[in-house]
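Hello everyone,

My group is preparing for a crystallization screen and wants a predicted model to guide construct design. The compound we'll soak is flavin-adenine dinucleotide. Before spending weeks at the bench, it would help to have a computed complex in hand. I've included the protein sequence and the ligand's SMILES below. Output in structure-token form would be ideal because that's what our pipeline reads.
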Amino acid sequence: MGAVVKKIAYNNSKYLITYLQNGETCQTEADYCFSNMPIPLMKDVLEDGHFEPSFREALHAVYQAQDRDRITPEGKYQAGFLADTTKVGWQAPRNLWQEAPGSGAVPIFGGISWSSDEIVQVWYPSDNYHAELGVLTGAYNFQQIAYEWGQESPSGRLENARQGARNLGGNDFAHGLAHGLAIAWQNVPYLQGGWANWSAVAEKEPGAKNATYFNALLQGDKDFYIIGDQLSALPGWQEGAVASAINAVNKVTDPQYLVPELDFLPDTRLMVECL
Ligand SMILES: Cc1cc2nc3c(=O)[nH]c(=O)nc-3n(C[C@H](O)[C@H](O)[C@H](O)COP(=O)(O)OP(=O)(O)OC[C@H]3O[C@@H](n4cnc5c(N)ncnc54)[C@H](O)[C@@H]3O)c2cc1C
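Reply:
Good plan to model first. Here are the tokens for the complex, ready for your pipeline.
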């Protein structure tokens, strides 16, 4: 914990990892390297001269997808490899949604309101129904809206979210929301996004399956394994992260073990963002 990897070098069939911890530069040598840091963050860390050309090419395709401008010269938003996504959390008295005012209004116990406002979603707590206070998700948005929210200060995002709550649930609801917390995952230094978005990686050649790069990274190379949900059939989900780690360990213990390649890449816009 608290150890920032600065360099992953390869020499004499060993990995030499240089990291910074408590202000000190430390090193460790290893026969195998498993790395779950988001692939684009490896760009300035991982020496890649020893990898097979196909593995190196795949790494660079991902770096390129992340580095492209989010706004094109035509003013259109284009996603990077790491998805833009923001959330807002609030604490509030539960009666604001559990005791709906007015005739015809339905009390809410858990679940999600999908909204056409920029907040996109409000998630209500599905626990402790009889407690006085509850914590709810006041915004959960993606892509261009998330990119734009991420450019604003956290307090600006909270104001947006309060306005969205007003549009959704009225003045009392919006006014009762307190202790706001706003996170834009693309602004978190060692994550730089919510999940892997393979749709942003250009196809290798016209007509080719754009799974080529994904599959090139999947089997690992020179005892280096990229793991995490980013290189799994379930990006954006913990199950993908666990499956990917199990696959990598199986490959080390059984060199004949082949991780199943994918014909089509999972699309996190569908699987996570429901868009
Ligand atoms: C908003 C949001 C909601 C989600 N909701 C769900 C959900 O409901 N259910 C679900 O199953 N999954 C959910 N997920 C996905 C889940 O969080 C991921 O699948 C899981 O965390 C992936 O684990 P990982 O180990 O692959 O990557 P991560 O947990 O992202 O770990 C990568 C690690 O690399 C570290 N790192 C980066 N650079 C360096 C460096 N230079 N040196 C050292 N360390 C470094 C980072 O600090 C980080 O700890 C959600 C994700 C987000 C963003």
